[in-house]
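Q: what does this look like with 2-OXO-4-methylpentanoic acid bound?
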Amino acid sequence: MTTTIEITKANTSKIQDVDFENLTFGKVFTDHMFECEFKNGSWQTPKIVPYGPLTIDPSARVFHYGQAVFEGMKAYKDDHNDVWLFRPEENLRRINKSAKRLAIPEFPEDIFMDSLKTLLEIDKDWVKPGFGNSLYIRPFVIATDPAIAASPALEYKFFIICSPAQSYYSGDVRVLVAEKFSRSANGGVGYAKAAGNYAAQFYPTSLANEEGFQQIIWTDADTHEFLEEAGTMNVFFRIDDTLITAPTSDRILDGITRKSIIQIAEDAAMKVEVRPITVTEIKAAAKNGSLKEIFGSGTAAVVSPISAFAHKDEVFEIPKQDPSFASIFKEKLLNIQYNKSEDPYGWRQPII
Ligand code: COI
């Protein structure tokens, strides 16, 4: 460890007040958080402080222009009480890619890794063992300097907050295929984890919720014919025994779970096609019975089977498979993440 981190510990822990068996996603946070300020052209001394509210000037650009990016990652505890991260360097790489697109200064890799591991070491009791239990880690950067000019800020804050989590989706996930609204466009910010990307989905998703669908599968903005991603997840389709997912682009998030699944599938000699896939193709496959599965992948969602999709007033129920590709990938990933199997890829990293 080369980074000097200023650490201020909380006087008391909140952990005894938490019901770890009944967690709502993202509502409870650990005792500490990481923060690092950017000013005068450089990142300042990184700090770990007690988790708590912030004081930010109301004119900060984050409030006006949404100059903010974030990440989602998880820590897992194995049966020996050791804590592991999954491909954390990929999250850092992606937050910096997102930051660049939003004209936010990139964050140094050594400070990120050292600070994250120190924070997790301090709050490791919040990571509970057992499949499904994890500590969801939310790094984010916001523009903080007091000025409302519509131009990149001069000051920022990088934070890491952590929240004990169970599964993101419980029960069936039914999705609506987008016909009118769009999530992203060519040359836009769809590939970035920009805060506003997610806010812009809330209204169309709430309309979908009213119709009994948990998520929208977004389609391309021009034709609404190409299936892209589900907003909180990348999407995979299984037609017969071929696994198909859309290629990443400047419209689609380069999901870490997504690329891990592709790698696992290819190494298992499964048929994988990373190519544009159309609504017409999956509707035809659903009608002729060759559409066996749809599932989403993401850090929060892990691997979430989709039980039905709807498009233009037609609803297609997807019969259950046993075993499903979704369950096979989920198990393989969890075994690596929770240190229950070999990790031939070197994806797992200890926090110490
Ligand atoms: C994640 O999977 O970490 C995400 O970013 C989805 C989140 C918006 C809940």
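The mean pLDDT is 96. Residues 60 and 297 are 34 Å apart (CA to CA).
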